[in-house]
Amino acid sequence: MKQLMMRKVLLSLIPIIVGAVFFFGWRTLLLMLVVTVAGILTEAIFKRRQNKKISEAVIVTSVLFSLTLPVATPFWVAIIGIIFGVAFAKEVFGGFGHNIFNPALAARTFIYVCFPEYLTVRWNIAASSFPGGFTRYITPAVDAVSGSTPLLSLRQSGIITSLQQLLFGNASGSMGETSGALILLGAIILILTKTIDWKLMLSPTVGFVATSSILTLIGVNNAPSPVFGLLSGGFLFASVYFITEPITAPKNSSAKILYGLLIGMITILIRVFGIFVEGVMFSVLIMNSFAPIIDVAFKELKKRRQVKTA
């Protein structure tokens, strides 16, 4: 099934994928290939029974899921994740266009809960100078005592990673989430090609920054500065590639703004007050379940206004 929108998303991901190889090595592409094959085979099983063709969306789902993983994630863990995402977050709802939850985030959340060690403590050093990972299969593992991701370092030892590292990507983390600059480049491509709705990208950012600013001003512990919070973890990546997904987001224009604002607010609340260092995947899935209700609520409000003015 040909889907022009999915091809545009893949095009925007090229700089991020190249950056991931530079930062973490060629295992990035191998892991992505393994996940994509597993994702396609999983969808093929369902489509064969339905006598339908495989959608190009499953490739995008597989690539996005791969980019949310640490480069050293075992292949078998990644395979279990994508099978769960495609089968239980997409196909059981009727396939592409009918799913309530984002399949890639559902897959990531599933293995985060089931196999937390591989996604919370096993990180690799991000290359900082050319040729970087272009000459390596995989970059060296991070010392669990002295090194970690920016969010973990902040919570565990109060160490704040420099904004320059967060912007250019030479910080430990998931393969596609470390470089704010490359993610923003992908966002620009998506906006110029009219692939995403800018309201779904801007509104969560506003909600995140506003909530983070309030918590910082009142002196709440573990509340990072808004800029640091945006560039660390997976929030920026999610804002561009997951929150903007039209299938799981509301359709009403005003509903999209509320949806995004709440995702940004919930994310920072989970990060600061929850036991999880990263909260964006939970906040997106939570709001995925409320998207239809928000749509209905705004439609009812519109009807009531029309009745009053009639």
Query: Which second-level CATH architecture applies?
Result: Orthogonal Bundle
Order of helices and strands: HHHHHHHHHHHHHH
**How many β-strands, per DSSP?**
0
Q: Describe the sheet with the most strands.
A: none
Structural class: mainly alpha
Approximate shape:
globular
- Give the number of domains: 1
Distance from N terminus to C terminus (CA atoms, Å) equals 45 Å
Helix content: 55-70%
CATH class: Mainly Alpha
Figure out the total of helices. 14
Which residues sit in consecutive blocks of at least 5 with pLDDT less than 50? none
Radius of gyration: 19 Å
Strand content: under 5%
Per CATH, what is the topology?
Ammonium transporter fold
Mean pLDDT, nearest integer? Answer: 90
Protein name: RnfABCDGE type electron transport complex subunit D
InterPro entries: NqrB/RnfD (IPR004338), RnfD_bac (IPR011303)
Organism: Alkaliphilus serpentinus
Keywords: Flavoprotein, FMN, Membrane, Phosphoprotein, Translocase, Transmembrane, Transmembrane helix, Transport
Provide the fold topology.
Blueprint: H1 4-24, H2 27-50, H3 57-67, H4 75-88, H5 103-114, H6 116-120, H7 150-157, H8 163-168, H9 180-192, H10 198-217, H11 226-231, H12 235-241, H13 253-273, H14 280-309
Describe the structure.
The protein is mainly alpha-helical. It has a single domain, classed as Ammonium transporter fold (Orthogonal Bundle). Helix content is 64%, strand content 0%. The longest helix has 30 residues, at 280-309. The chain is globular and about 70 Å long. The chain crosses the membrane at residues 29-46, 58-89, 175-193, 200-220, 226-244, 256-274, 280-298. InterPro entries: NqrB/RnfD, RnfD_bac. It comes from Alkaliphilus serpentinus.
